[in-house]
Design goal:
Layout: H1 13-23, H2 28-35, H3 39-47, H4 53-63, H5 67-72, E1 81-84, E2 87-90, E3 95-98, H6 101-137
Antiparallel strand pairs: 1-2, 2-3
C-alpha cells in the first residue's frame, strides 16, 4: 500500500492582504485611502477568504506586490514568533517587525513629565499671585 503526504493549500486572500499591509506598517485607514474604499470595507475584504481579481489588483497595486503573491501565499497553522533586540520575526511569513515598545513608553513618560512640569509652573504662578494679593491686604 502506497502512502503519500497530502497537503491542503490554505490560501486566504484577505489575510494575505492584511499581513502584507501590517508588514509594511500601513494602517487600515491609509489602505482605504490607497484603494479608494472605506476603512470598514477594507476590514471586510481582509476577512474574506476569496476576493475577485479586480479588487486583488487594486490591493496589489497599493501594496506594491503582485496579485500572484496575494493569491498563492499559504496560511500556516502554526505561527512562531521570535523576539531579538526588539525585532519581532514571524516565521510563517518571514516578515520582520521593528517595533520597540520601550521607546514608546519612554517617550510617553517624557511627555507626562513635561506636562506635569508645565502644570507645576502654572500652580507656582498662582501661589505667587495669591501671595502678592495677601501682601497688599496687610
Amino acid at each position: 500500500m502506497k502512502t503519500e503526504n497530502l497537503s491542503i493549500k490554505r490560501v486566504h486572500h484577505g489575510h494575505n492582504i492584511r499581513d502584507i499591509r501590517r508588514g509594511k506598517g500601513i494602517k487600515q485607514e491609509a489602505m482605504a485611502d490607497m484603494v479608494h474604499l472605506s476603512q470598514q470595507t477594507v476590514s471586510r475584504y481582509e476577512s474574506a477568504q476569496v476576493i475577485d481579481d479586480e479588487m486583488l489588483e487594486r490591493f496589489a497595486k497599493a501594496l506594491d506586490v503582485s496579485v500572484e503573491e496575494i493569491k498563492t501565499t499559504e496560511e500556516e497553522t502554526n505561527n512562531n514568533y521570535y523576539i531579538e533586540n526588539n525585532t519581532f520575526s514571524d516565521s510563517s511569513s518571514g516578515i520582520l517587525y521593528n517595533y520597540t515598545p520601550v521607546k514608546e513608553i519612554i517617550e510617553l513618560c517624557n511627555q507626562k513629565v513635561e506636562l506635569y512640569e508645565r502644570l507645576l509652573e502654572v500652580e507656582k504662578g498662582k501661589i505667587t499671585w495669591l501671595e502678592k494679593i495677601l501682601e497688599q491686604k496687610k
